What does this fold into?
Amino acid sequence: MASIAASSTSFIVGRPKWWRDGQIVRRRSITFLQRAFTYIVLIDIAFVFLVPIFYIMATSLKTSQDLTDPTIVWIPSGFFWINYPLAFFSMAYVKSLSNSLYISLGSALGQTVSCAFVGYGFARVRFPGRDALFALVLFTFLVPPQTIIVPLFILYKNLGWINTYQPFVVPSFFGHGLKGALFVVVFRQFFKTLPWELEEAARIDGASAFATWWRIMVPLAMPAVVVVFLFSVVWHWNDFFEPFIYLNRMEYFTLPMRLSVLSPSLDTATGGQASDLFNEALVMAAVFLVILPPLSIYLFTQRFFVESIDRTGLVE
It folds into this structure.
């Protein structure tokens, strides 16, 4: 083998300089084309996601004349900032924001803790019927929430939970809620990758199963915790269907729900002048105010979020 390697090395070294330079140029060209292809794909993906945001921002600053002028598409004739105060007050932004935060953060916290606990049990604890129970968990993920909304509504009505936040927060602390089964799968797959020696060492030190999960496994699962928490926050923030079913008083409305009643709310806030002020620019200003909190969260947690996605292998 040593003689074969030596002969191949001598074969390469023995080549003329123009041949070696050609090989170097060829490798550099391949590397350049690979990077160029990667950047083109990334630019295309960024274009798909950024163009709607730019359109929202540009349209929200337009006047009524700009909206009817076909020559004005991206850059308005002037910055009409009054759309934002109108949208802010017509949506009762502070109250609606607190409602959305309560539902999103409360549900995300409950799902992160409960799904981590359930996922750890499916991944590390051997008990009869484990695989059958996990199959039921996957089945709940396949069942659309619209198919069971009627019995859920009757149940929550009998419990007195209508026009409260309990239908969103309480089930999340039991491994349910929006996309709960998916989060259980994420934690299960992550915990299965950890070595069994960690738990054996913890048992030798006298730690219980709960202490092992809380003190050892959960800190090691921080990438999965970050992914689950952020996804849960965003999905509960954008959810419109379930809040629309369980909340029918405007003082409990979330920000996405306020968009559906923007015109009547504006009419109330302006004393019956909604017909003169309600237009696409005002709607875009309201939309931007709705997506601003999730965008801010992502900007501050982008590095941790990307690292966590890479380590868990989860793709939305």
